[in-house]
Amino acid sequence: MSAERYSVLVIGSGVTALMAAVSLARRLPDVQVVRLDTGITDPVDDLIGACRPSIRTFHAALGIDEADVISRTRASYRLGTALSGWADREVFRGHGMYGEPLSGVAFHHLWLRAAPVEPYESFSINASLAARGRFAPPSSVPGSPMAGLDYGLQLDLPAYGQALRSLGRVAGVEEVQGAIASVQRTEDGCGIRALKLTDGRYLTADLYVDADGRGAIVRQSLTSKWVDWSNALLVDRLCVVRKEAPAHLVQDIVIASESGWRYESAAAQAWGYSSAHLNGQNGAIAFRQGRLEDPWRGNCIAIGSAAVSLEPSAATGLHTVCRHIERLIGCWPGHASQATEAEIAFYNRRTAMEADRMRDFIQLPYLLNERPEPFWRAAAAGPVSAELTRDLALFRERGRLATHDEDGFERDEWIASLIGFGIRPRHLDALAQELPMTRIQQRLEAIRL
Amino acid sequence: MSSNRIERIVIVGGGTAGWMAAAALSRFLAHGDTRICLVESEEIGTIGVGEATIPPIRTFNGLLGIDEAAFLRATQGTYKLGIEFVDWGRAGQRYFHPFGRYGRDIAGIDFHQLYLRERTRRAIPKIEDFCVSAAAARAGRFDRPQSDPAHPERDFNYAYHFDASLYAGYLRKYAEHLGVQRFEGRVEHVVLDPESGFVRAVDLTGQRRIEGELFIDASGFRGLLIEQALTTGYEEWQHWLPCDRAIAVPCASAGPPEPFTRSTARAAGWQWRIPLQHRIGNGHVYASAFMEDEQAERVLMENLPASALAPPRHLKFVTGRRKLAWNRNVVALGLSAGFVEPLESTSIHLIQLGIAKLLALFPDRRFEPVERDEYNRAMQTTFEAVRDFVILHYKLTSRPGTAFWSYCSSMSIPDSLERKLALFRGRGRNLRSDGELFGLTSWVAVMLGQGVWPEDYDPAADAFDEAKISTLIDNVQQSIQQTVLGFPAHMDFIQRSGGAAAA
What is the band of A2 on the pLDDT scale with cuts at 50, 70, 90? Predict the structure, then answer.
């Protein structure tokens, strides 16, 4: 092993930086982790604690006990997101399985063939529990209706951040308080040489992890191109408040309003709108949706919302953080050497694919909304990526889905969104047509909740 | 119900591809009114290069409800645990590409990373000693995998070797039993719709016309419908894979059949050896730009393990893929869709995948382009991924001497492969993309087997205690040795499980 320990400077005060610091310190031996506490927090990153199931993988990798998180940090369980008022009925995008396939034919094909039957949601255990405001853990018994359940967590981020901070101390994360005065680049301009703090101190490291949220300046001091999505995702103002006492909610609810929406979760409440369609509101922050073209450059990498900025309507925030950390550890340079061009290119390519897919998933309900107001009409007419255009065409034809690399969502979530917004394929799947109707009906009967 | 349902499917060509398609379509479109017919001519032989397969063949047979023992009996089949590569990286070097996995992972760290780390500390055996399928292959033994959470290394994968023309015959019986109608005759003329350019019918010798709505082109390299009638176009990959000839010859068995394929590098290509129950299939794949046909035949005949049972057959091919595997109302399957040399036994798999995708995207008479496009996109991705993996074997060589191998080691390779290589060279990393057929074990096997030792290993592997990992590595090796000792000899297993063909 090398004599010099590889040093990492994680920049940021929020949950993103805390998650990154503790993960790197715990999972990578011989890495010296310093976190620069800049004192900057971001209301979106640090108050909206909706997590997809990926948070549980994150906890498992760190050996964090989920029951502990729940009891110590006012966290609760989360089954999915309900979109209310976007169309003439509520649309639920749940985790977990919808129904079960039959003879290799996907469940939604069976449901479409048997139509008209009960709503699609009545075949999802997550949707059924969410509608009743209940939760129970998944069952490992095959065939049990609870076997198809999957869940994420609803974190109260200020409390969660406290827990991560103490965990970080135990894992050896060194904390430095200070504000950045300037970023000094290497002579070729492709890397960072040091950070100068306002009190005159200098910080140096082998790798700089910029986790300082949307306003992050360290990574941005190297050349960077921002891929802007504001034409596709119109919401550019947000106002977030923490709830005094957590509400009993097992799902997030995003309620459409004239020029945006109101967001309700167990721990937080938020309003999002488009400044082009509504005059400024007190307490709202401006934010832009998009991503850095290459979040990792030389010895500096931006993670979380410093790299990919998206609205909270599909709970992608902490999901993104978990995925970025996991991918960074997967590409870890280590052993006092620098990352190779191949590793950096790999990281950037996969991160971009994943972010673009998230943008499409978030944009989908805007494209399919049924509201008359100018904001909603403009959102429905927004530019659509080639991939999403193709996916929509394929689904509209016969209910089929293409496969994608780095799709952070389950196929069932895509299907639930499409069917929830009333898209009915023009034709039935050929193999579903071959199955006898009596068998399909028996199957539906058996699994209806 | 939609009146646009496809009612008549015509399959042109009765080789492995044609009858696989007939069997699968008749099985999954069994309930409706779809009529399936297949046109073939006994005058045209089948090529049947794909006698060795990869594990997904078991899924295909499983979906058709085919019993393994009956299938082996009917096709003179044997089990296959992987491929042994001889003299590829350099002369005298052997390695095994196993169907299965290496050792066991710990806390998300791949075993090969633990192996690479251990190797920096002490001398340890080749990585294949940590894979039960490789160890069983070397011992000439076979048993079915077990899924035992306490011994994850006992869970492996396997495929078959079989006589492709017997397999086609077996599937023919299966398909005909389910109502597929077979027509004997050569296609003389293809009738196109003057407006849409769709194929409407094929005219056979003897003035019989066969009409259809969906056509499967399983006519082989010439692509009777997809190319000769629809001029779809072909993308050639010869600059990356210069082999363009093969000579095939069966020979007598030399002892009991081995449960693996062997591929031996030769001066301008390579030689295959596929052990069946009653004989051994042999072949020499070579580049005509670097070796004359006569010499290639001599190389093959001088390197047979036993006496030849038939005269050698010469085949020509152009490596590449049809630009659109599905064009208008014609879906090309098998050689008409494209060809990558059988180095990794992918021919039958590409057929099977084409069938599965076709069923998943099955059209109706309107033939909406959106499904066709998705099919073509998916097939292109898979073909290219297979191509890259096969190129890797040629690229990673330090064989001295011949012009052919110097060309291969210095040729430029596709960017997609360049990226994979660079990532592996750094810290032994590999990540599978969608549509990619070969997984981590395969890439690790070929990279390490042909001498690409990463500069470093994944630093996350350092998170584990040295002594613990050392013990684990020894335990895995011992457990594998013991497991294999409990396996019966390959041929004994075939006999015991009822798979032996009548002598």
Answer: very low
Q: Give B223-250 pLDDT, tens digit per residue.
A: 999 999 999 999 999 999 999 999 999 9
Name beta bridge partners: B119: none
Contact at CB, A430 and B29, closer than 8 angstroms: yes
How many other CB atoms sit within 10 Å of the CB of residue A110?
28
SS3 label, residue A181: strand
The answer to whether the beta carbons of residues A210 and A295 sit under 8 Å apart is: no
Interface of A with B in 18-77 (CB under 8 A): 27-31, 61
Query: Amino acid letter at A337?
Result: S
* B172, amino acid identity: R
SS3 B358: helix
Query: pLDDT tens-digit profile of A397-433?
Result: 999 998 888 888 999 999 999 999 999 999 999 889 8
Name the residue among B177, B173, B190, B128 with its Cα closest to residue B153.
B128
Q: Cβ contact (<8 Å) for B462 and A434?
A: no
Three-point CA angle B152, B154, B155, nearest 5°: 75
Residues 6+ apart with CB under 8 A from B70: none
Cβ A368 vs Cβ A388: under 8 Å:
no
Task: Give the DSSP letter string of B97-133.
Answer: EESS--S--BTTB-HHHHHHHHHTTS----GGGG-HH
Contact between B293 and B314 under an 8 Å Cβ cutoff? The reply is: yes
Query: Sign of the CA dihedral B209, B215, B218, B221?
Result: positive
Is B367's Cβ below 8 Å from some Cβ in A? no
What are the structural domains, with CATH classification, of chain B?
Answer: 8-51+163-238+319-367 (3.50.50.60)
Structural domain boundaries of chain A?
Answer: 6-95+151-384
Q: Which residues of B are catalytic?
A: 80
d(CA B30, CA A365): 38
Coil, helix or strand at residue B417: helix
In whole angstroms, what is the distance from residue A58 CA to residue A160 CA? 14
**Token digits of residue A429:** 């799947």
Mean model confidence pLDDT for chain B? 92
CATH architecture of the domain A6-95+151-384 equals 3-Layer(bba) Sandwich (3.50)
Are residues B145 and B158 in contact, defined by beta-carbon separation less than 8 angstroms?
yes
Residue to test with chain A: of B36, B416, B427, B431, most A Cβ within 10 A: B427
Nearest alpha-carbon partner for B227 in B367, B369, B322, B320: B322
3-state secondary structure of A374: helix
Indicate the residue type of B144: R
B371 close to A (CB below 8 A): yes
Residue A428 near residue A104, CB atoms below 8 Å: no
> How far apart are alpha carbons A196 and A200 in whole angstroms?
6
Encoded tokens for A439: 């068998």
**Amino acid letter for position A385:** S
Low-confidence ranges of chain B (pLDDT < 70): 1-3, 31-32, 45-50, 434-435
Give the strands of the sheet with B338-339, arranged side by side.
Answer: B234-236, B320-322, B338-339
Cα atoms in the 13 Å half-sphere on the side-chain side of B388:
23
State in Å, rounded, how far the first CA of chain B is from the last one. 52
Tell me how far apart the alpha carbons of residues A5 and A29 are, in angstroms, rounded to a whole number.
9
Cβ-Cβ contacts under 8 Å for A342 (sequence gap 6 or more): B419, B422, B423, B425, B426
| Residues listed for chain B | 503
B116: helix, coil or strand? Answer: helix
Q: How far is CA A69 from CA A21, B158, B272, in A?
A: 18, 44, 58
Distance from CA of B361 to the nearest CA of A (A): 7
Residues of A in contact with B377 (CB under 8 A): 402
pLDDT digits (tens, 9 = 90+) for B24-68: 999 988 766 789 999 998 877 666 554 899 999 999 999 999 999
B422 in contact with A at a CB cutoff of 8 Å?
Answer: yes
